[in-house]
Amino acid sequence: MRSLHLASWEFRGMVYVTSGSWVLSCRMSEGDSVGDSIHGKPSVVYRFFTRLGQVYQSWLDKSTPYTAVRWVVTLGLSFVYMIRVYLLQGWYIVTYALGIYHLNLFIAFLSPKVDPSLMEDSDDGPSLPTKQNEEFRPFIRRLPEFKFWHAATKGILVAMVCTFFDAFNVPVFWPILVMYFIMLFCITMKRQIKHMIKYRYIPFTHGKRRYKGKEDAGKTFAS
């Protein structure tokens, strides 16, 4: 009688048993993420950064209504950064890069979300009013005010951190950078003002004409 070869396969969690030998499998299930540990629970580092992001977003949400306070803090950080650069007498290339970054943010803040030059031959979607008697439409920016403030503040903080590392202190003749930045600022703003005059829009809604509904006289009519 031919002997039977007994081979038993049994799956117990992550252990396979076959003919008395143990084979361990360390594969991840489909539902596990990169930040999960072997036991399926998020790691300590993953939970720490997740919680930190939630707290940071909560503070951003709370600061949204306080526009003036936010910009005062940002201007204060800018002043502190300029004093630090002046005292250290270095990191001019970092300051120049910060100025170019803020200029790009400012141009996006002044620009409409939909470029009028791309909507000249198209009737799709709302457009900016070009006549005085047209209906009032609020100016929708390409870069909203809150995102502008957030990006500008982060740029200042990053530049501040860079001043603590000598690797970013590239020797350069700073008057050339100042002259080049002033020239670039004038050219960019001139082009932006021409664009505003050509398509007749103002990047601010303050002071524009607003329409109000008729006041309710409080009278009722019997049917």
From TrEMBL:
Q: Which UniProt keywords apply?
A: Membrane, Transmembrane, Transmembrane helix
TM region(s), chain numbering: 68-87, 93-110, 172-189
Q: Tell me where it resides.
A: Membrane
Q: Name one GO biological process term.
A: retrograde vesicle-mediated transport, Golgi to endoplasmic reticulum
Membrane topology is: Multi-pass membrane protein
> Which InterPro entries does the record match to this protein?
Rer1
List, alphabetically, the GO terms of the cellular component aspect.
Answer: endoplasmic reticulum; Golgi membrane
What Pfam family is a match for this entry?
Rer1
Q: Its biological function?
A: Involved in the retrieval of endoplasmic reticulum membrane proteins from the early Golgi compartment.
Which family does the UniProt entry place this protein in?
Belongs to the RER1 family.
Protein name listed in UniProt:
Protein RER1
State the organism of origin: Carlito syrichta
Q: Which gene encodes it?
A: RER1
